[in-house]
Amino acid sequence: DRGRLEPPIAAAKPLVHFEKRCTYEGCSRPGESSRFHRITEETTAGGRDWRGLLGRVLCERCYTRYRSAGTLEPAVAPPKRTILAEPGQRCTYDRCLRPCESSRFFRISKETHGGGQDWSRLDGMVLCNACFVRFRNRGTLEPQGGQPRPLGATLAESDKRCSYEGCPKPLDCTRFHRISEETAAGGQDWSGLLGRVLCSRCYARFRDRGTLVHRVGPSPSGGYPAQDRHVTGGKRGAEHGFSAHPLPTALKKARLTEGAQRASRLAEEAEAAAML
Hints:
The protein is of the alpha+beta class. The protein has helices at residues 60-69, 129-138, 200-209, 226-229, 234-240, 249-275, and strands at 36-38, 57-59, 83-84, 101-102, 105-107, 126-128, 176-178, 197-199. The longest helix is centred in the last third of the chain and has 27 residues, at 249-275. It is elongated and about 125 Å long.
C-alpha cells in the first residue's frame, strides 16, 4: 500500500533521555534545546519535504530552520566588505584615520548633494564612507566638530592641576582642558586664558557664563566688584574692559590701603560733625 519496504515510524513515540540530542551534524548546540522533534511520515510542517530526514531527531532551532527555509544549513551572513583602495584611490581628508580602508569611496563633484550640505568646497576630493557620512550628517569633516579636546588623558601628571587660583579643588578632577587658540566653546572670548589648564568645573563655568568666579554680580555702584574683575572675561568681561589675568599683589595692597584711608577720613569727618 505504501510502496516502501521500511516499516512506518511511530508518530507519537516519546523520546527517551538519551535520544534528546539533535542529529544534524552541523548543529552548534545539539544537546541544548527547549524541545526536540522526531521526524516521521506525518511531519509536514511548512509544506516541506521531510522524507530525507525520516527518523532523525532535530532540536527546535534546526527544526524551525528546515520548516522555514527547507534546509538545515544556517544562513551565513556575508562578511562586511572592506574594500581596499585601488592605487590612486584613498580618502583625501588629511585627518582620516583609515584613508585606504572603507566599504565605499565617493568622489565629490559639483553634482554631489546630500544632507542639505554645501559640498562645493570639497569638489574633487575623494572621501571614504565614514568621512562622507560625517559631512553629510554634520556638515564638517572634523571628527569632534571642532570642539576643544579634553587633555586629561594626555597631560603630564605635573600639569594635571587647574590653574585658576580660585578653584576650590584644583587637583580633584577627572578631566582637564588646555585652552588654545582654537577654543571657542560657548561663544566666549578665551584669549585671556591661552595656555592655561582648567578643570572641567571651571571650564564649564567660563563656557556658560564667561567668568571663572563662582558668583559675579554688579556692585551698588553699577560695576563689578574689584576682587572679581581679575578673573572676569568672555563676553561679559569684555563689555567692562576686564582682563582674565590676576591683578599684581602690589596693586591689591595699594587698593586696600586706599580703602582704609578713605574709611578713616570718613570717620574723622563724622566725629567733627558731631562735635559742632
